[in-house]
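Renewal narrative, Specific Aim 1. Our central claim is that a sequence can be written position by position from structural information alone. The example that follows is taken directly from our test logs and has not been curated for this report. It begins with the structure tokens describing the chain, in the order in which they were read.
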């Protein structure tokens, strides 16, 4: 494995394609076209990889509150994981996408939220795999029944009430993971209201990946978060709780393992704008 236990290289994955204790999950998705990721998977994917969809598998249906990508029902996700051969705390899950870890990190975080720490992301994603010359296929693998019994780690999540109470406390840092112009309210391509949660600091998620699509070296990940390493509590959010998981991956690489996800994120926060915050 490379960098740390939460990342593997294409070379490592190629050498473990036939390992029965490894399950590969293709997480490709497009916010602009919800069917694109699945279509790409059906055409070409890493041999043996299963597909999990951001909307259908890694999120719950959208409601009045909870944001654009509410956390999935733990039991339903556990059933899907069981159906692709993931045994709780036994199987190593390798997640990949082609969006700079945006969706692979969502699965990485979700599995840890369900108590399963045997999960890694593929450095460089599907693009890196292809550029390295490793084989792809259009063959859909058969189901591999296993037993995944989730143990939800509620301490990993913050809801809007917790954010409101804690965000202005000393030594508590609220991290906005969106691009700088969205944080500043200069541009908002998705949500109805622009801006950020008062008191939040901006660490754009895209900054942890280099131009070739690979995670920055460990020393750079650590340096990125050095000002926050003594924080009592870190709560991370984005637009809907997806790309914030990339920052949570970066924090993990930097040795900060207790940061929380505001799962509903900005899209949840603004859903209360007509109510008392």
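The sequence written for that structure reads:
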């Amino acid at each position: 494995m490379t960098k740390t236990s939460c990342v593997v290289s294409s070379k490592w994955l190629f050498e473990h394609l036939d390992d029965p204790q490894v399950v590969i999950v293709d997480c490709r998705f497009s916010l602009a076209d919800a069917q694109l990721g699945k279509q790409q998977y059906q055409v070409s994917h890493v041999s043996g990889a299963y597909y999990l969809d951001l909307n259908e598998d890694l999120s719950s249906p959208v409601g009045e509150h909870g944001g654009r990508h509410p956390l999935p029902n733990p039991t339903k996700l556990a059933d899907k994981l069981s159906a692709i051969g993931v045994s709780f705390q036994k199987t190593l899950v390798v997640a990949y996408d082609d969006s700079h870890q945006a969706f692979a990190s969502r699965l990485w975080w979700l599995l840890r939220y369900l108590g399963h720490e045997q999960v890694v992301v593929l450095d460089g994603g599907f693009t890196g795999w292809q550029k390295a010359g490793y084989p792809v296929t259009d063959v859909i693998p058969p189901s591999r029944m296993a037993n995944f019994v989730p143990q939800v780690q509620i301490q990993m999540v913050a809801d809007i009430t917790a954010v409101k109470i804690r965000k202005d406390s000393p030594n508590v840092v609220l991290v906005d993971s969106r691009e700088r112009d969205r944080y500043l309210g200069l541009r908002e391509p998705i949500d109805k209201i622009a801006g950020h949660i008062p008191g939040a600091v901006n660490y754009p998620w895209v900054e942890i990946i280099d131009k070739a699509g690979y995670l920055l070296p460990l020393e750079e990940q650590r340096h990125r978060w050095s000002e926050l390493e003594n924080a009592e509590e870190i709560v991370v959010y984005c637009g809907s709780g997806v790309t914030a998981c990339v920052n949570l991956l970066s924090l993990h690489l930097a040795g900060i393992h207790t940061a929380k996800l505001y799962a509903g994120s900005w899209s949840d926060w603004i859903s209360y704008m007509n109510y008392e915050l």
